[in-house]
Give the backbone structure.
Amino acid sequence: MGRIEILKENNMRRILQVNINNEGGAFSLVYQVQKMIDQKEYVFDYYTMGKFNYNSVYLDIIKNNSHIYEADLRKNRFIGHLLLPIRFYKFLKNERYEIIHIHSDSSWKAILYAFPAKIVGIKNIIIHSHSTGINGEQQFFKKMCHRIAKQLISCFCTKFVACSSEAAKWMFDTQKVDVTIVKNGVNLCRFKPDMVAREQERRKLNYFPENIVIGTVGDFSDTKNPMLLIEIFEQLLKDNDCFRLLFVGSGSNEKNIKEIVKKKGLESKVLFMGRTDHVEIALEAMDAFVLPSKFEGLPVSAVEAQATGLPTFLSPNITKEVAISGMAWFPHTYLDVNEWKNLIIQNLYNVKFQNITERVKNAGFDINDTVKKFTELYMR
């Protein structure tokens, strides 16, 4: 008797979370849900085209009876994408999942998993849109594939999910299909103003009381646009030399960004914290949160920052659905560095460290509401 059949006897269901590894916003959301969902009823397994990072999160996933499957096809991405549907088909033939939950930023990437799942006969194929654009190189080719696949995607899945209305429009033909919006909720017990934690973390990071710390959380990808943030920071320094910049996160482009900071002579004023399992503590050290992304589905980091009570400054390319605190501002012009600078200086001290837990909860960004939505997706 196979593993899946044994779990059925125990009334436990394994959900295969597809196309994510243990980094990025989509994984962060799924990982939070995994920790809070009824684990006697649901267990999350993971399938990624690449590999997982071997860290504390990886070990925690394994400890919780989950399985991680790595196709390891990213060494040559062109060949990898050709092989992926075949590899995934063979995998599903052997494992026999009832439910797969595909997370994607483009329809063509989602179909690479959904098509073999449909052929195998998976009963519940969920496609979850987490973005409003495509990252990386060969943009023209990728967008062309996305437009074609967008017209076909409804043939291969049973449920359509998105983190925002803009992400729904990006991935699906919303005139033809009904899309369930599942908001990127946060754990409100973790993310709230804590002045004691703030003082401790700032002391630990060697920030002085007069320092004004702007920060961001992300993976240093081109989508997050760390270069624009550095340019904004340079303008802020011209106004006040007490400004400091805090990067939280890691990614393949991190080394390049560090080199740019070094060439600009900003090493003493920019701190790279790296990846942390306690983002809420890192946010406490900040005076403002800035996210100048080129596009986003709905950034959970911006929700976390607002829940922590931080003034939050976001790219106009990000959906306004994320503005839930009354403390979020958007410049009119995306690349106008001076407008970013003026917007931050004008609003930096207007509101800070307000406890807006109830406001975030009422806006539907409580992780408990997200867990409930996930559970409804998986119900028989």
Remarks:
- The two ends are 22 Å apart (CA to CA).
- Residues 77-95 form the longest helix (19 residues).
